[in-house]
């Protein structure tokens, strides 16, 4: 018997329509690098879907976009399985929701915890696999389990070490997955667009999609011609390495020669988290990359483990999303092939 028969026809119909729309938008965004709606409109659709599933929980099936990471699409890149799943992040959209999340995190972690506040880089996630200190594979996030093999392209990015430094006080693990974000600095994006306009060509829509299009190129020489950068924000699978604090992981990553942000801050109270969020709300444009929010992570790794993950996101981290500053009305100008 189908449990969803308890759900009114109208709700089932709305659910199916929303899922179809969201899947189409995901394809345009993740595969074609050419979104057909603004991020704010996309987030609104996803929130509506979440609300509908809250009201009718039997609609919350594993295939729902609320339960998945990104999308599952076959692309022209070779598929590669991550050793540890890559997750997305849950979102909050205002201070009240953020304070609720922080209070719940403190309660559920059951003790004194610290919050690691970081900028949410508006780029695309990358997974770097190092074996015996050497970069052996780079992949996009894909559906979280399987991504696209972009090793040759990643090797052209300045700042992605081909070999990790073994000089730090903690040895580089024999096998380690490093998670980071590839982005195009705002200044480089503006220069690229100025050059295109001068050549009478249409400019690109935004740095995020340009970065994604630049990284997911069949010809690595095209990737190499774009001044892409990367900042790391996590470790996936690792062998023989125990870390007690996320902030400590960043120190190790830096010592191994990986680019780590210098804006991350460990704080101990919700008020300090809000102060960090407010500060960067006012200074969004002082940062070299676009940021669409702030990521707050519980710093203590044992508490992270205790809270665990949902099917799509860790329970020990949250993304606070800033309200959109301007809605891009020039979406139709986006070039599909970058
Ligand atoms: P997300 O981008 O909101 O958050 C998860 C990702 O944030 C992680 O995978 C990680 O790569 C990245 N990240 C950046 N900085 C980080 C940091 N400091 N620490 C940890 N992670 C960090 O999630 P998502 O599932 O990739 O996609 C949703 C986003 O993409 C939304 O903003 C949505 O609006 C946009 N989107 C838009 C469309 C569209 O059609 N316009 C379609 C799909 C998705």
Q: Could you explain how this protein is built, in words?
A:
This protein is of the alpha+beta class and 338 residues long. It folds into two domains: 3-59, Helix hairpin bin (Helix Hairpins); 79-333, DNA ligase/mRNA capping enzyme (D-amino Acid Aminotransferase, Chain A, domain 1, 2-Layer Sandwich). The chain is built from ten helices and eleven strands. The protein has helices at 9-31, 39-55, 95-109, 151-154, 186-198, 207-215, 220-224, 246-255, 270-282, 301-307; strands at 79-81, 91-92, 115-121, 124-131, 134-140, 146-148, 175-183, 229-238, 265-267, 291-298, 317-321. A five-stranded mixed sheet has the order 2-11-10-3-9. The chain is globular. Mean pLDDT is 92; it is low at 327-338. It binds nicotinamide-adenine-dinucleotide. Nicotinamide-adenine-dinucleotide binds at residues 25-26, 28-29, 35, 37-39, 42-43, 70, 88-89, 118, 120-121, 125, 141, 181, 233, 292, 295, 319.
């Amino acid at each position: 018997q189908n449990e969803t028969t308890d759900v009114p026809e109208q709700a089932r119909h709305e659910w199916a329509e929303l899922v179809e729309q969201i899947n189409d938008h995901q394809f345009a965004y993740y595969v074609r690098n050419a979104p057909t709606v603004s991020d704010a409109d996309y987030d609104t659709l996803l929130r509506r879907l979440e609300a509908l599933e809250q009201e009718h929980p039997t609609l919350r099936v594993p295939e729902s976009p609320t339960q998945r990471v990104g999308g599952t699409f076959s692309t022209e890149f070779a598929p590669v399985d991550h050793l540890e799943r890559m997750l997305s992040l849950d979102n909050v959209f205002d201070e009240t929701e953020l304070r609720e999340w922080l209070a719940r995190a403190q309660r559920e972690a059951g003790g004194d915890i610290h919050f690691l506040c970081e900028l949410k880089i508006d780029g695309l996630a990358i997974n770097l696999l190092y074996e015996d200190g050497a970069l052996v594979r780079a992949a996009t996030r894909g559906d979280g389990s399987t991504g696209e093999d972009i090793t040759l392209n990643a090797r052209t990015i300045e700042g992605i070490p081909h070999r990790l430094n073994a000089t730090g006080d903690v040895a580089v693990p024999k096998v380690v997955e490093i998670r980071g974000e590839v982005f195009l600095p705002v200044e480089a994006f503006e220069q690229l667009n100025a050059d295109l306009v001068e050549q009478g060509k249409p400019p690109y829509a935004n740095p995020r999609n340009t970065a994604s299009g630049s990284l997911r190129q069949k010809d690595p020489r095209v990737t190499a011609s774009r001044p892409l950068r990367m900042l790391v924000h996590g470790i996936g699978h690792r062998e023989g390495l125990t870390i007690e604090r996320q902030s400590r992981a960043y120190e190790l990553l830096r010592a191994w020669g990986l680019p780590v942000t210098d804006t991350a801050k460990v704080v101990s109270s919700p008020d300090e988290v809000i102060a960090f969020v407010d500060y960067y709300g006012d200074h969004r444009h002082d940062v070299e990359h676009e940021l669409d929010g702030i990521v707050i992570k519980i710093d203590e790794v044992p508490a992270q483990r205790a809270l665990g993950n949902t099917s799509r996101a860790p329970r020990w981290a949250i993304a606070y999303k800033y309200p959109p500053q301007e809605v891009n009305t020039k979406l139709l100008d986006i070039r599909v092939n970058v």
